[in-house]
Specification:
- This protein is α/β, with parallel strands linked by helices.
- It folds into 2 domains: about 180 residues, Rossmann fold; about 100 residues, Helicase, Ruva Protein, domain 3 (Orthogonal Bundle).
- A hairpin with a 2-residue loop joins strand 6 and strand 7.
- Helix 13 packs antiparallel against helix 15.
- The longest helix has 17 residues.
- It is globular and about 70 Å long.
- The relative contact order is 0.15.
Length: about 325
């Protein structure tokens, strides 16, 4: 086992410079936001979709565009609005009277990186149009199924639901997102630098990797070792969201619904990718704890009583992490 891990880490050593170069390129247009950048890279390495939530003006869209530019991935953007139709996302079939046949017009979902900007401003039927694409990496138009390019990554942004003109995402679609990231305001120093840069031209980014490089890196990430003890720890954490009172009596009545087994898979995948960012071929409990809030916060439903008391999903995850120990 140790020999396998050493061999894997030798291969991962070729990935580390690419990841650092991507960080450096994104830093040309982003100020701060190191946690956001690393989580976007984790989502890409783990081959999962990412939901980014924050108030307008926090560079969510800029970060996504910078990621695709630095990695030379095909990028398309959909601005979600209340009048958007499912065909505007996945495409449609158009009848040609001259030939009496239907031709296929593919939608913007056929790309490597799809930015679903302000996804919660479109009605649920449009949001649900992405379900097949996100889960199966394919689109069915009429009688034909089309495979999406690889890698395929949906990076969606949304504004907090308490703002006017937004629609909650369906629970089934929320569960399709590998992580949900919460973007906060910059520090004083960072905002000063943002103001300084605002008067300068936006720099162009260099391509530091290709789609083939990303696919190769994803294959290596899937080989990162997770011990049986760590697997049990991951499962215990996820199961604790279904019965939180079993690990912390004060959490009784706080959750009406916990995370599904898909959360266990996502937590393991993100832990592997987090280990790769540190150059390791094996995952540690620290990797799991680092990504747990991002993986679990959108997969739990708080009760009305918990919300009334001001309890957040992040606080519940924090208490579960403190209560659950490795066996």
């Amino acid at each position: 086992m140790e020999a396998n891990i050493e061999a894997l880490e030798e291969q991962l050593a070729t990935v580390a410079p690419v990841l650092q170069a991507a960080r450096d390129e994104m830093a040309k247009v982003l100020v701060g936001q190191r946690a956001l950048v690393d989580r976007l890279l984790i989502g890409l390495l783990a081959n999962g979709h990412v939901l980014i939530e924050g108030v307008p003006g926090l560079a969510k869209t800029t970060a996504v565009k910078a990621l695709s530019d630095a990695l030379a991935l095909e990028f398309k953007r959909i601005q979600f609005t209340p009048d958007l139709l499912p065909a505007d996302v996945v495409g449609t079939q158009i009848y040609q009277p001259s030939s009496g046949e239907f031709t296929t017009k593919k939608g913007p979902v056929f790309t490597h990186v799809l930015l679903s900007d302000e996804i919660n401003r479109a009605p649920p039927k449009v949001q649900s149009a992405l379900l097949e694409s996100m889960q199966e990496r394919q689109v069915t138009l009429g009688d034909t199924t089309y495979v999406l390019p690889a890698p395929f990554l949906v990076l969606a942004t949304q504004n907090p639901l308490e703002q006017e003109g937004t629609y909650p995402l369906p629970e089934a679609q929320m569960d399709r997102f590998l992580m949900k990231l919460s973007v906060d305001y910059p520090s004083l120093e960072e905002e000063m630098e943002i103001l300084e840069r605002s008067s300068k031209a936006v720099p162009s980014l260099s391509h530091v990797a290709s789609a083939e490089d990303i696919l190769a890196a994803q294959a290596l990430v899937s080989q990162v070792h997770i011990s049986d003890v760590l697997r049990r720890y991951i499962v215990d954490l996820v199961r604790a969201t279904r019965a939180p009172e079993a690990v912390d009596a004060e959490l009784r009545g706080t959750l009406s619904c916990g995370a599904s087994p898909r959360a266990s898979i996502a937590l393991a995948a993100c832990a592997r990718a987090h280990a790769v960012l540190d150059g390791r071929g094996y995952a540690l409990p620290e990797d799991v704890k680092a990504v747990a809030p991002d993986v679990l916060r959108h997969r739990m439903l708080l009760t009305y009583e918990a919300e009334a008391e001001g309890l957040s999903a992040d606080r519940v995850v924090e208490r579960i992490l403190a209560a659950v120990e490795m066996q």
